[in-house]
Design a protein that fits this description.
The chain has 404 residues and is mainly alpha-helical. The chain has 2 domains: 191 residues, Up-down Bundle (Growth Hormone, Chain: A); 192 residues, Growth Hormone, Chain: A (Up-down Bundle), CATH 1.20.1250.20. Helix content is 78%, strand content 1%. It contains 16 helices and 2 strands. A two-stranded antiparallel sheet has the order 1-2. Helix 7 crosses helix 14. The protein is globular and about 55 Å long.
Amino acid sequence: MSQDVQRADYRAWLAIAALGTGSFSIVTAELAPIGLLSQIGGDLGVPTGQVGLIVTLYAWIAAAAAISSAVWLGAVPRRPLLIGLMVVLAASGFAAGLSESFAWLMGARVLGAIAHGAFWAMIGTLGAQIVPARQVGLATSIIFGGVSVASVLGVPFANLIGVGAGWRIAFLAIGVLSLGVAFAMWITVPVVQGTGNVGVRPLIRILSNSRFQRIFAATLFAVTAHFMAYTYIEPFLTGAEEVSIRAVAPLLFTFGAAGIAANMVTGALIDSWLKTIVMVSLLLACGALSALTLLGASIGVMGIALVLIIWGGAIAAILVGLQTWVLKEAGADALQASAIYVALFNGAIGLGAALGAGLLETTGLSSLFLCSAVLVCIGFISIAALREPQVRTAVRKSTTEAAG
Protein backbone atom coordinates (compact mmCIF):
# COMPACT_ATOMS: atom_id res chain seq x y z
CA MET A 1 0.00 0.00 0.00
CA SER A 2 1.33 3.40 -0.90
CA GLN A 3 2.22 5.57 2.05
CA ASP A 4 0.84 8.58 0.17
CA VAL A 5 -2.71 7.21 0.11
CA GLN A 6 -4.96 9.44 2.21
CA ARG A 7 -7.61 6.81 2.95
CA ALA A 8 -7.33 3.06 3.33
CA ASP A 9 -9.26 0.79 0.95
CA TYR A 10 -11.66 -1.97 2.00
CA ARG A 11 -8.90 -4.62 2.01
CA ALA A 12 -7.01 -2.70 4.64
CA TRP A 13 -10.10 -2.46 6.82
CA LEU A 14 -10.78 -6.19 6.44
CA ALA A 15 -7.25 -6.76 7.75
CA ILE A 16 -7.90 -4.35 10.63
CA ALA A 17 -11.12 -6.24 11.44
CA ALA A 18 -9.21 -9.55 11.47
CA LEU A 19 -6.66 -8.07 13.86
CA GLY A 20 -9.50 -6.80 16.06
CA THR A 21 -10.89 -10.33 16.16
CA GLY A 22 -7.41 -11.49 17.11
CA SER A 23 -7.33 -9.12 20.07
CA PHE A 24 -10.75 -10.46 21.08
CA SER A 25 -9.38 -13.98 20.98
CA ILE A 26 -6.25 -13.31 23.03
CA VAL A 27 -8.07 -11.30 25.72
CA THR A 28 -10.75 -13.99 25.97
CA ALA A 29 -8.00 -16.59 26.37
CA GLU A 30 -6.36 -14.48 29.09
CA LEU A 31 -9.43 -13.64 31.19
CA ALA A 32 -11.86 -16.52 30.59
CA PRO A 33 -10.43 -18.67 33.44
CA ILE A 34 -11.50 -16.05 36.01
CA GLY A 35 -15.05 -17.41 36.03
CA LEU A 36 -13.90 -21.04 35.87
CA LEU A 37 -11.50 -21.09 38.82
CA SER A 38 -13.80 -23.01 41.15
CA GLN A 39 -14.58 -25.61 38.49
CA ILE A 40 -10.92 -26.09 37.63
CA GLY A 41 -9.84 -26.28 41.27
CA GLY A 42 -12.56 -28.76 42.17
CA ASP A 43 -11.82 -30.99 39.17
CA LEU A 44 -8.03 -30.98 39.55
CA GLY A 45 -7.99 -30.97 43.35
CA VAL A 46 -6.18 -27.64 43.63
CA PRO A 47 -7.12 -24.71 45.94
CA THR A 48 -8.87 -21.86 44.13
CA GLY A 49 -6.18 -19.40 45.19
CA GLN A 50 -3.51 -21.54 43.54
CA VAL A 51 -5.59 -21.92 40.40
CA GLY A 52 -5.60 -18.13 40.18
CA LEU A 53 -1.96 -18.36 39.13
CA ILE A 54 -3.11 -19.35 35.64
CA VAL A 55 -4.38 -15.77 35.28
CA THR A 56 -1.75 -13.81 37.24
CA LEU A 57 1.25 -15.72 35.89
CA TYR A 58 -0.19 -15.51 32.37
CA ALA A 59 -0.21 -11.71 32.59
CA TRP A 60 3.38 -11.47 33.81
CA ILE A 61 4.71 -13.91 31.17
CA ALA A 62 2.83 -12.01 28.46
CA ALA A 63 4.53 -8.83 29.67
CA ALA A 64 7.98 -10.39 29.32
CA ALA A 65 7.06 -11.86 25.92
CA ALA A 66 6.05 -8.43 24.62
CA ILE A 67 9.48 -6.98 25.37
CA SER A 68 11.32 -10.04 24.09
CA SER A 69 9.43 -10.03 20.81
CA ALA A 70 10.52 -6.46 20.10
CA VAL A 71 14.14 -7.38 20.75
CA TRP A 72 14.28 -10.64 18.81
CA LEU A 73 11.33 -10.80 16.38
CA GLY A 74 11.31 -7.29 14.93
CA ALA A 75 12.80 -8.42 11.60
CA VAL A 76 10.25 -11.20 10.98
CA PRO A 77 7.57 -10.41 8.34
CA ARG A 78 4.37 -9.64 10.16
CA ARG A 79 1.76 -11.83 8.48
CA PRO A 80 3.45 -15.24 8.95
CA LEU A 81 4.54 -14.21 12.44
CA LEU A 82 1.04 -13.25 13.56
CA ILE A 83 -0.51 -16.34 11.98
CA GLY A 84 2.07 -18.52 13.71
CA LEU A 85 1.44 -16.85 17.08
CA MET A 86 -2.31 -17.35 16.71
CA VAL A 87 -1.73 -21.04 15.92
CA VAL A 88 0.37 -21.28 19.10
CA LEU A 89 -2.49 -19.69 21.04
CA ALA A 90 -4.83 -22.28 19.52
CA ALA A 91 -2.45 -25.06 20.59
CA SER A 92 -2.48 -23.61 24.09
CA GLY A 93 -6.28 -23.74 24.17
CA PHE A 94 -6.35 -27.33 22.94
CA ALA A 95 -3.66 -28.39 25.43
CA ALA A 96 -5.54 -26.70 28.29
CA GLY A 97 -8.73 -28.44 27.21
CA LEU A 98 -6.98 -31.82 27.37
CA SER A 99 -5.30 -31.13 30.72
CA GLU A 100 -5.40 -33.93 33.29
CA SER A 101 -3.27 -32.18 35.92
CA PHE A 102 -2.65 -28.66 37.17
CA ALA A 103 0.97 -28.82 35.96
CA TRP A 104 -0.25 -29.67 32.44
CA LEU A 105 -2.77 -26.82 32.55
CA MET A 106 -0.12 -24.38 33.77
CA GLY A 107 2.23 -25.43 30.96
CA ALA A 108 -0.53 -24.83 28.40
CA ARG A 109 -1.17 -21.38 29.85
CA VAL A 110 2.53 -20.48 29.75
CA LEU A 111 2.59 -21.40 26.05
CA GLY A 112 -0.42 -19.18 25.40
CA ALA A 113 1.02 -16.28 27.41
CA ILE A 114 4.16 -16.23 25.27
CA ALA A 115 2.08 -16.02 22.09
CA HIS A 116 -0.21 -13.46 23.70
CA GLY A 117 2.53 -10.96 24.57
CA ALA A 118 4.27 -11.21 21.21
CA PHE A 119 1.01 -10.98 19.24
CA TRP A 120 -0.20 -7.91 21.11
CA ALA A 121 3.13 -6.11 20.75
CA MET A 122 3.08 -6.65 16.98
CA ILE A 123 -0.56 -5.70 16.30
CA GLY A 124 -0.05 -2.49 18.25
CA THR A 125 2.07 -1.15 15.39
CA LEU A 126 0.54 -3.02 12.46
CA GLY A 127 -2.49 -0.77 12.18
CA ALA A 128 -0.14 2.16 11.59
CA GLN A 129 1.54 0.18 8.80
CA ILE A 130 -1.68 -0.76 7.02
CA VAL A 131 -3.70 2.48 7.03
CA PRO A 132 -2.62 6.11 6.38
CA ALA A 133 -1.21 8.02 9.34
CA ARG A 134 -4.31 10.20 9.63
CA GLN A 135 -6.44 7.09 10.27
CA VAL A 136 -4.18 5.39 12.82
CA GLY A 137 -6.47 6.31 15.71
CA LEU A 138 -9.52 4.74 14.05
CA ALA A 139 -7.58 1.59 13.15
CA THR A 140 -6.23 1.31 16.70
CA SER A 141 -9.76 1.71 18.09
CA ILE A 142 -10.99 -1.18 15.95
CA ILE A 143 -8.03 -3.42 16.74
CA PHE A 144 -8.21 -2.85 20.47
CA GLY A 145 -11.98 -2.76 20.44
CA GLY A 146 -11.64 -6.53 20.67
CA VAL A 147 -10.56 -6.00 24.27
CA SER A 148 -13.90 -4.44 25.22
CA VAL A 149 -15.88 -6.99 23.23
CA ALA A 150 -14.00 -9.82 24.97
CA SER A 151 -14.81 -8.38 28.37
CA VAL A 152 -18.53 -8.22 27.63
CA LEU A 153 -19.02 -11.25 25.33
CA GLY A 154 -15.94 -13.47 25.22
CA VAL A 155 -15.56 -14.06 28.94
CA PRO A 156 -19.27 -14.63 29.70
CA PHE A 157 -19.60 -17.00 26.74
CA ALA A 158 -16.53 -18.95 27.86
CA ASN A 159 -17.99 -19.19 31.34
CA LEU A 160 -21.38 -20.21 29.95
CA ILE A 161 -19.74 -23.00 27.97
CA GLY A 162 -17.80 -24.02 31.06
CA VAL A 163 -20.90 -24.22 33.21
CA GLY A 164 -22.89 -26.10 30.57
CA ALA A 165 -20.27 -28.44 29.14
CA GLY A 166 -17.25 -28.23 31.45
CA TRP A 167 -14.22 -25.94 31.68
CA ARG A 168 -12.19 -28.09 29.27
CA ILE A 169 -14.72 -27.48 26.48
CA ALA A 170 -14.41 -23.75 27.11
CA PHE A 171 -10.67 -23.91 26.48
CA LEU A 172 -11.17 -26.07 23.40
CA ALA A 173 -13.61 -23.48 22.06
CA ILE A 174 -10.94 -20.79 22.49
CA GLY A 175 -8.56 -23.00 20.52
CA VAL A 176 -11.05 -23.31 17.66
CA LEU A 177 -11.64 -19.54 17.67
CA SER A 178 -7.90 -18.89 17.51
CA LEU A 179 -7.51 -21.16 14.49
CA GLY A 180 -10.33 -19.32 12.77
CA VAL A 181 -8.59 -15.99 13.42
CA ALA A 182 -5.35 -17.37 12.01
CA PHE A 183 -7.18 -18.32 8.80
CA ALA A 184 -8.83 -14.89 8.57
CA MET A 185 -5.46 -13.16 8.91
CA TRP A 186 -3.94 -15.40 6.24
CA ILE A 187 -6.65 -14.17 3.84
CA THR A 188 -6.80 -10.49 4.73
CA VAL A 189 -3.56 -9.19 6.28
CA PRO A 190 -1.17 -7.76 3.67
CA VAL A 191 2.51 -8.58 3.46
CA VAL A 192 4.25 -6.25 5.90
CA GLN A 193 8.00 -6.51 6.28
CA GLY A 194 9.59 -6.32 9.70
CA THR A 195 11.54 -3.22 10.61
CA GLY A 196 14.49 -5.15 12.03
CA ASN A 197 15.37 -6.34 15.52
CA VAL A 198 15.49 -3.31 17.76
CA GLY A 199 17.82 -4.61 20.46
CA VAL A 200 17.91 -3.41 24.05
CA ARG A 201 19.36 0.09 23.53
CA PRO A 202 16.31 1.48 21.70
CA LEU A 203 14.12 0.24 24.55
CA ILE A 204 16.34 2.06 27.03
CA ARG A 205 16.18 5.18 24.87
CA ILE A 206 12.39 5.09 24.89
CA LEU A 207 12.29 4.56 28.64
CA SER A 208 14.65 7.47 29.23
CA ASN A 209 12.43 9.88 27.26
CA SER A 210 10.47 12.06 29.70
CA ARG A 211 7.40 12.22 27.45
CA PHE A 212 7.19 8.43 27.25
CA GLN A 213 7.79 8.18 30.98
CA ARG A 214 4.65 10.23 31.57
CA ILE A 215 2.61 8.19 29.09
CA PHE A 216 3.81 4.91 30.55
CA ALA A 217 3.19 6.15 34.10
CA ALA A 218 -0.38 7.05 33.14
CA THR A 219 -0.79 3.58 31.62
CA LEU A 220 0.59 1.82 34.68
CA PHE A 221 -1.58 3.76 37.11
CA ALA A 222 -4.77 3.61 35.02
CA VAL A 223 -4.58 -0.11 34.19
CA THR A 224 -3.53 -1.10 37.72
CA ALA A 225 -6.40 0.94 39.14
CA HIS A 226 -8.91 -0.54 36.72
CA PHE A 227 -8.06 -4.18 37.37
CA MET A 228 -7.67 -3.53 41.09
CA ALA A 229 -11.33 -2.47 41.17
CA TYR A 230 -12.93 -4.41 38.31
CA THR A 231 -11.60 -7.78 39.46
CA TYR A 232 -13.77 -7.39 42.55
CA ILE A 233 -16.80 -5.64 41.12
CA GLU A 234 -18.83 -8.86 41.24
CA PRO A 235 -18.42 -9.25 45.04
CA PHE A 236 -19.46 -5.60 45.36
CA LEU A 237 -22.63 -6.20 43.34
CA THR A 238 -23.58 -9.50 44.95
CA GLY A 239 -23.04 -8.05 48.42
CA ALA A 240 -25.30 -5.06 47.82
CA GLU A 241 -28.79 -5.40 49.30
CA GLU A 242 -30.22 -3.16 46.58
CA VAL A 243 -28.96 -5.49 43.82
CA SER A 244 -30.60 -8.87 43.25
CA ILE A 245 -28.59 -11.83 42.06
CA ARG A 246 -30.40 -11.69 38.72
CA ALA A 247 -29.33 -8.08 38.20
CA VAL A 248 -25.59 -8.80 38.48
CA ALA A 249 -25.13 -10.21 34.97
CA PRO A 250 -27.07 -7.38 33.25
CA LEU A 251 -25.05 -4.80 35.20
CA LEU A 252 -21.77 -6.39 34.12
CA PHE A 253 -23.06 -6.53 30.55
CA THR A 254 -23.87 -2.81 30.83
CA PHE A 255 -20.26 -2.10 31.76
CA GLY A 256 -18.91 -3.95 28.73
CA ALA A 257 -21.52 -2.54 26.36
CA ALA A 258 -20.50 0.97 27.42
CA GLY A 259 -16.93 0.08 26.56
CA ILE A 260 -17.91 -1.09 23.08
CA ALA A 261 -19.91 2.09 22.47
CA ALA A 262 -17.01 4.21 23.72
CA ASN A 263 -14.66 2.46 21.29
CA MET A 264 -16.92 3.43 18.40
CA VAL A 265 -17.13 7.06 19.49
CA THR A 266 -13.43 7.21 20.29
CA GLY A 267 -12.50 5.78 16.91
CA ALA A 268 -14.37 8.57 15.14
CA LEU A 269 -12.85 11.40 17.20
CA ILE A 270 -9.47 10.29 18.49
CA ASP A 271 -7.34 11.36 15.52
CA SER A 272 -8.47 14.95 16.06
CA TRP A 273 -9.08 15.10 19.84
CA LEU A 274 -6.62 12.62 21.32
CA LYS A 275 -5.52 14.50 24.45
CA THR A 276 -9.00 15.78 25.21
CA ILE A 277 -10.44 12.26 25.04
CA VAL A 278 -7.74 10.81 27.30
CA MET A 279 -7.97 13.59 29.88
CA VAL A 280 -11.78 13.65 30.06
CA SER A 281 -11.89 9.84 30.25
CA LEU A 282 -9.40 9.77 33.14
CA LEU A 283 -11.53 12.28 35.03
CA LEU A 284 -14.70 10.29 34.37
CA ALA A 285 -13.09 7.05 35.56
CA CYS A 286 -11.86 8.78 38.70
CA GLY A 287 -15.33 10.17 39.31
CA ALA A 288 -17.01 6.78 38.85
CA LEU A 289 -14.64 5.02 41.25
CA SER A 290 -15.03 7.84 43.76
CA ALA A 291 -18.81 7.47 43.55
CA LEU A 292 -18.54 3.78 44.40
CA THR A 293 -16.33 4.73 47.35
CA LEU A 294 -18.49 7.51 48.76
CA LEU A 295 -21.98 6.27 47.91
CA GLY A 296 -21.54 2.50 47.65
CA ALA A 297 -24.70 0.61 46.80
CA SER A 298 -26.95 3.26 48.38
CA ILE A 299 -27.50 4.80 44.94
CA GLY A 300 -29.63 1.82 43.94
CA VAL A 301 -29.56 -0.35 40.85
CA MET A 302 -30.09 2.50 38.38
CA GLY A 303 -27.38 4.59 40.03
CA ILE A 304 -24.94 1.70 39.97
CA ALA A 305 -25.77 1.08 36.30
CA LEU A 306 -25.03 4.72 35.51
CA VAL A 307 -21.69 4.56 37.34
CA LEU A 308 -20.76 1.36 35.48
CA ILE A 309 -21.65 2.96 32.15
CA ILE A 310 -19.38 5.93 32.91
CA TRP A 311 -16.58 3.70 34.16
CA GLY A 312 -16.82 1.18 31.32
CA GLY A 313 -16.89 3.85 28.62
CA ALA A 314 -14.08 5.83 30.23
CA ILE A 315 -11.67 2.93 30.64
CA ALA A 316 -12.21 1.79 27.04
CA ALA A 317 -11.40 5.29 25.76
CA ILE A 318 -8.37 5.51 28.07
CA LEU A 319 -6.85 2.27 26.82
CA VAL A 320 -7.33 3.04 23.14
CA GLY A 321 -6.23 6.63 23.68
CA LEU A 322 -2.99 5.77 25.45
CA GLN A 323 -2.09 3.12 22.84
CA THR A 324 -2.75 5.61 20.04
CA TRP A 325 -0.71 8.26 21.87
CA VAL A 326 2.24 5.87 22.12
CA LEU A 327 2.10 5.06 18.40
CA LYS A 328 1.84 8.70 17.30
CA GLU A 329 4.57 9.80 19.70
CA ALA A 330 6.96 7.01 18.73
CA GLY A 331 7.23 7.49 14.98
CA ALA A 332 9.88 5.06 13.70
CA ASP A 333 10.28 3.66 17.23
CA ALA A 334 6.68 2.39 17.27
CA LEU A 335 7.58 -1.29 17.69
CA GLN A 336 9.68 -0.91 20.81
CA ALA A 337 7.38 1.74 22.30
CA SER A 338 4.35 -0.49 21.72
CA ALA A 339 6.17 -3.48 23.22
CA ILE A 340 6.88 -1.50 26.39
CA TYR A 341 3.25 -0.36 26.50
CA VAL A 342 1.98 -3.94 26.16
CA ALA A 343 4.43 -5.16 28.81
CA LEU A 344 3.28 -2.47 31.22
CA PHE A 345 -0.36 -3.20 30.43
CA ASN A 346 -0.10 -6.92 31.15
CA GLY A 347 2.12 -6.39 34.16
CA ALA A 348 -0.43 -3.93 35.53
CA ILE A 349 -3.21 -6.52 35.16
CA GLY A 350 -1.38 -8.87 37.50
CA LEU A 351 -0.33 -6.03 39.81
CA GLY A 352 -3.86 -4.65 40.04
CA ALA A 353 -5.39 -8.03 40.83
CA ALA A 354 -2.74 -8.70 43.49
CA LEU A 355 -3.07 -5.28 45.13
CA GLY A 356 -6.86 -5.58 45.03
CA ALA A 357 -6.73 -8.94 46.80
CA GLY A 358 -4.53 -7.49 49.54
CA LEU A 359 -6.72 -4.41 50.05
CA LEU A 360 -9.90 -6.48 50.02
CA GLU A 361 -8.65 -8.61 52.89
CA THR A 362 -7.35 -5.71 54.98
CA THR A 363 -9.55 -2.67 54.31
CA GLY A 364 -12.63 -3.80 52.35
CA LEU A 365 -14.22 -2.80 49.05
CA SER A 366 -14.72 0.91 49.80
CA SER A 367 -11.02 1.51 50.42
CA LEU A 368 -10.19 -0.57 47.37
CA PHE A 369 -12.29 1.69 45.11
CA LEU A 370 -10.84 4.79 46.78
CA CYS A 371 -7.26 3.65 46.12
CA SER A 372 -8.22 2.93 42.52
CA ALA A 373 -9.63 6.45 42.13
CA VAL A 374 -6.43 7.94 43.55
CA LEU A 375 -4.28 5.95 41.11
CA VAL A 376 -6.38 7.15 38.15
CA CYS A 377 -5.96 10.72 39.39
CA ILE A 378 -2.18 10.24 39.44
CA GLY A 379 -2.41 9.02 35.86
CA PHE A 380 -4.27 12.21 34.97
CA ILE A 381 -1.51 14.33 36.53
CA SER A 382 1.15 12.32 34.67
CA ILE A 383 -0.24 13.22 31.29
CA ALA A 384 -1.82 16.64 31.90
CA ALA A 385 1.30 18.66 31.05
CA LEU A 386 2.07 16.80 27.81
CA ARG A 387 1.44 18.32 24.41
CA GLU A 388 -0.68 16.25 22.06
CA PRO A 389 1.66 14.24 19.78
CA GLN A 390 2.05 15.15 16.14
CA VAL A 391 1.51 12.46 13.50
CA ARG A 392 4.83 11.03 12.43
CA THR A 393 4.56 9.10 9.20
CA ALA A 394 7.93 7.46 9.89
CA VAL A 395 5.95 4.90 11.86
CA ARG A 396 5.00 3.48 8.48
CA LYS A 397 8.52 2.41 7.72
CA SER A 398 7.65 -1.05 6.48
CA THR A 399 6.76 -2.03 2.92
CA THR A 400 3.25 -3.33 2.44
CA GLU A 401 1.77 -5.21 -0.47
CA ALA A 402 -1.59 -6.70 -1.24
CA ALA A 403 -2.17 -10.07 0.37
CA GLY A 404 -1.68 -12.87 -2.03
